[in-house]
Amino acid sequence: MHVLPFVHEGLGNSSYLLELPDGDALVVDPDRSIDRYLRAAADSGRRVVGALETHLHADFVSGAHALASRGEARAYVPAGAAARFPHTAVAARERLDLGGARIEPIASPGHTPEHLAYVVHLPQSPPLLFSGGALIVGGAARTDLIAPDQTVPLTRALYRTTREAFRALPDETALLPTHGGGSFCSTGAGGERTSTLGRERADNPVLAEQAEQEFLDWFPKLFPAVPAYFARMRAGNQAGAADPARIAPPRPLPPSAFEEAAARGALVVDVRPTAAYMAEHLPGALSNPFRDAYATWLGWLVDPETPLLFVLGDVPLTRVLEESLLVGYERFAGVLEGGVETWARSGRETRSTPFLRPVKAATEVATGAVPLDVREPDEFAAGHIDGALHIPLGSLPGRESTVPRDRPVVVYCGHGERAATAVSLLERAGLEALRNLDGGFGAWREMAGRC
Q1: What pTM value is reported for the model?
Q2: What confidence tens digit (pLDDT) does each residue in 111-145 have?
Q3: What is the bridge-based pairing of β-strands 13-19 and 286-287?
Q4: Which one of 46, 245, 418, 419 is most buried, by most CB atoms within 10 A?
Q5: Which string of b and e fits 14-27 if b means at least 16 CB within 10 Å?
């Protein structure tokens, strides 16, 4: 059987299309962009007859309910998830026979309480282990997403899962996890998405010989900050999300109607590249350049009930909507017709923010400007501009008042995208003398190395 992975680089996650012996297909941990699975199956003359969920996801909207609502696929969800949409509840060790494949669900709590892994047994072939977050390449998924008082019990459960749940499987078992490098649920930052149990048994630090208390003291400290939107995603996936095909796309709006929608409370999201935003943008617009991390930062910084207005530039609307829907945004108020150029020609105000090369930024810092570092704590600890104020981007909303207003502020991140978002948040909070360090801290360090 053939397994086709679908990788979302921004989320650091994988889903899988599994071709079945009888000619149909299953999807494992599908996200909301379900048409790509259906197209891939149809391209090989197959139809998707089922969606296997390993757990209630906290970082993206699942597509299991949407697939099932199309009428041909059945959603298979861990019984402990208590899903509230039509599905088949799956219990551990309750064998599934689907399309000529024997599938064994294995209890694997830790990342979540209800977590199941699925072993697909094939004739004359090594098993396939769809492990969700129970075991991933070089690690396992985090255990602190449910509630503070559940982190220790779930970490204990993960310790037992990693040592007992897959013990009977041979080393050649293919490991096909959901989470991977770049995921906020993941321990690792490597580029490999799949592995074998043998390789992980030899190299994965989560499987290293250590006492349970050592594991408890070590494992929860491995992870970055939790994006704010994770707190609402499990409940949304438990209820089941609507098919994206049923959600109306936004209409193009001329500047007057766009301005009126913003006045009624819709948020303007500018998805153009950083340089375009810096050169000219609408007052009050949130800069979130469209890239792999777009969905994560939209989810982290914007209330999901807020209607969204988009400034697109050359970014395809369909891609922006797919990524917005992926983290639960469904209220689309409009798209600026003609873009910033039409807005400016209508006589409406635009703003710009200096994009400083490192030498110019260094001059400003030397004469009193405040460097503001919006990277994550591990990035800051690895090196930063002397005297920098450190506020990670995800923590900036609500802390804008701690940024000095009596001096210029040079905002920087790794490359410039997060800094552009921070600039837009600070501008919305009323700060004026803002700059973005072109090239981020990497460019600064390169300049310092030449001096």
Answers
A1: 0.94
A2: 999 999 999 997 778 999 999 999 999 999 999 99
A3: unpaired
A4: 419
A5: bbbbbbbeeebbbb
